[in-house]
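User: Before I run my own analysis I want an independent prediction to cross-check against. Here's the chain; please return only the structure tokens and, at the end, one sentence I can use as a sanity check.
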Amino acid sequence: MMSSRIAGDPIVDVHTHMYPPSYVKIMEDRNEIPMVRRFPGSQDPRLILLPSEVESMKSDPEGKSKVPGRPLTKHYASLDQKIHFMDTHKIAISVISLANPWFDFLDPAEAGPIADSVNDEFSKMCTKYPGRLFFFAALPLCASAEMIRNSIDHALSLPYCRGFIMGTSGKGKGMDDPEMVPILQHIKENMVFLHPHYGLPNEVYGPRAEEYGHVLPLALGFPMETTICVARMYLSGVFDKCPSLRLLLAHSGGTLPFLAGRIESCIVHDGHLLKEGRLKNRRTIWDVLNQQIYLDAVIYSDVGLRAAVLAGGVDRVMFGTDHPFFPPLETDEQGEWESVTLNVTSVNYALPNQQQVKQVLGGNAVNILKLERIGKEIVAA
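Assistant: Structure tokens:
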């Protein structure tokens, strides 16, 4: 076991994923998306998520012209690889979480026990590197309300759990679904890390989308999915019904920091909302951003990060890497990743002084996620 003592001001990564081996095995046994498949031309197994990838498999079953899906390298499932990545980038603490598609594809009767087992697996990973790893638990949102509540309670009993990761689709109808309200109320003040789920419909990218790789769905689809989700939550009153809800938004809140003013303007000029009396005694979208929403710093530019800081405040932004996604394509994956150094550079360029840089790189996460409960034991190597 490595030493768990870290010197100086820690860098904390709040947006970093893993697919534990047991989860990968579940998808290897499936015959429909999401699933994991191996192809003769690919060294690593591939995660198949999209219907278009299934069609590609039908026409080219061995992936000779184009291997479908994303490669599941050892960065996705290996704990040793995660620690190596952290050490390479001088990351003291990571709050790891399962990546999409979580558990929404499971049989509802089986989802609860499987979710608890995967969360237990994350907890055991954290115990191997005490103080260096914490985790956001994933919930069986396709299951019954009772099973979901039980999974929440089970996860919160695990010492390294610091909240929950959820996809924007919630139980399948979005986070503004009335059935999500009692779930969020049961979570109370524990953090909910809201992450894009499947992106926007492929049709929005136009008939030539396949020529552009994954740029449109990842660069535009995921951030817009988050923005739309939070706007729907706001308009439906979720934040008022769940006043203790704390929401950490992936990818610096999508386009929410940039579009919050436009959203607010459209609300106050909407005759339908005025007629229904929904404009009286309401908090503005800016109020919610400053009171219940936190943003990660996975934005890759100082321009975007400045918008995130201006929208919610420097004390509500936390560093992230989105590892193991966006690996280097032309250099060794065991070295530094440009996707990480871009985020670090953005923090340094966007903020006016070293104190605020330290806040975003680690101090905010330690305070907000109460990492000091175990992290205070982490002082020197």
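Sanity check: The CA atoms of residues 267 and 273 lie 7 Å apart.
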